[in-house]
Specification:
Among the domains are: about 35 residues; about 80 residues, Homing endonucleases (Endonuclease I-creI, Roll), CATH 3.10.28. A hairpin with a 7-residue loop joins strand 7 and strand 8. The chain starts with a helix and ends in a 5-residue tail after the last helix. Helices cover about 40% and strands about 25% of the residues. The chain is of the alpha+beta class.
Length: about 260
């Protein structure tokens, strides 16, 4: 890892109008590293890993972890960089600033010593954090897309989901789900009236993630059904009034 002085020197050269190529050649540092320092200057301060030590332990904030697990399974990935440092990345739409804040907060609570950064993308914000140990905390990480490989929880993760089931549901809905209002009309006493009713949807291409979502809903007493659609992704609908009320109480719409 490069110290802060080296990072400042590289950025100072960039500030003088030098190109990434020329600065990279002069000080012997990759362009990717210099580009990353433009959004995160401070060196990584990695936390001690709770999972790969001689006596594996659970994350300190199990509630935040379970919520972050839902976000990761929905819209997250882990990228591997130089020196085997990994970056957890969660992609949050610009339309939901509250979700962006909740995601960043959860990352900080899971690994408090590590910096959480944000990178603006087209239509979304990438919330990310560097650590050598993200794959230890999210062993579902692997090559290829999630729906093309098996996704199964480790026993310790299943324990946390059983302790905090609503946090997993909230993370999954906040990533690949939504709350919306449908409407219909009925003729009552000769007059056509409009009726609105809310429902929740969750869409994912991975059959394993869909099963994890619906199994958790079953344990919470939330009724659901498969929605008809033509895409490869599966869509789960929650429309029963009592079930929607439970979702409103514990999950709520994105904001």
């Amino acid at each position: 890892m490069y110290d802060l002085d080296t990072r400042k020197r590289a950025l100072a050269l960039i500030g003088q109008g030098r190109s990434l190529n020329s600065v990279s050649r002069q000080i012997g540092i990759s362009r990717a590293a210099i580009r990353e320092w433009q959004t995160r200057l401070e060196p990584l301060r990695d936390s001690e890993c709770l999972r790969c030590g001689p006596e594996p332990a659970l994350p300190q904030d199990t509630t935040a972890y379970t919520y972050l697990l839902g976000l990761y399974l929905g819209d997250g990935c882990i990228s591997t960089g130089p020196r085997h440092v990994h970056r957890l990345r969660i992609f949050c739409a610009d339309a939901w600033p509250g979700l962006i804040e909740s995601c960043a907060t959860a990352m900080r609570q899971v690994l408090p010593q590590n910096t959480v950064g944000r990178v603006k993308k087209q239509g979304c914000v990438e919330v990310g954090s560097f650590s050598k140990h993200w794959p230890c905390l999210f062993p579902q990480h692997g090559s290829g897309r999630k729906h093309e490989r098996r996704i199964a929880l480790e026993p310790w993760q299943q324990q946390l989901v059983e302790e905090h089931p609503w946090e997993l549901v909230r993370g999954l809905i906040h990533s690949d789900g939504c709350r919306m209002t449908n409407w219909t009309t009925r003729v009552v006493g000769g007059e056509r009236k409009r009726y609105e009713y809310p429902r929740y949807f969750f869409t994912n291409t991975s059959a394993d993630i869909i099963r994890l979502f619906t199994d958790t809903l079953d344990g919470l007493g939330v009724e659901w059904k498969h929605a008809r659609q033509r895409r490869k992704a599966q869509m789960i609908s929650i429309a029963r009034r009592a079930s929607v009320a439970l979702m409103d109480e514990h999950v709520g719409p994105k904001h």
